[in-house]
Amino acid sequence: MRDALKGGDGWIQVSVAWMLIGTVILAAAALSRRMWPPLAVYGVIVLVLVLGQAGYYHSKPRLLVPALLILVPPAVALARARPRTAALVVAAVGAFGLWYGSYLITVWHYAI
């Protein structure tokens, strides 16, 4: 990750590195809230397996989808927000995810 942040050969590596850093921060925030133990153990195991594996760097965010632990802090924040704000945030994140995934599949030369 250090190499990707210092001199990655494109914004994809940098964005994946920031996603992984954000994932670790979200997992730490979720664990500090004293999560339900089975969810905490499962989430930590998934996080360790994904971050510790060798392989394609750009596939790590896709492999983090089952790590439900990282969704708890944003879900709590959205639950406390006003409905209009929550809807706008969910729509913005969804639009970004749609664009990012579409870009990776259609334009990025390392995709399938």
Structure description:
- By secondary structure, this protein is mainly alpha-helical.
- It is built from 6 helices and no strands.
- Helix 2 runs antiparallel to helix 3.
- The chain is globular and about 40 Å long.
- The two termini are 22 Å apart.
- The mean pLDDT is 87.
Estimate the global geometry from the Cα principal axes: globular
Largest sheet: none
The total of helices stands at: 6
Give a count of the beta strands, DSSP E runs of length 2 or more. 0
Please give the radius of gyration in angstroms.
15 Å
The run of helices and strands is HHHHHH
* Portion in beta strands: under 5%
Helix content: over 70%
In angstroms, what separates the terminal alpha carbons? 22 Å
Name the average pLDDT: 87
Q: Detail the poorly predicted runs.
A: none
Class per helix and strand makeup: mainly alpha
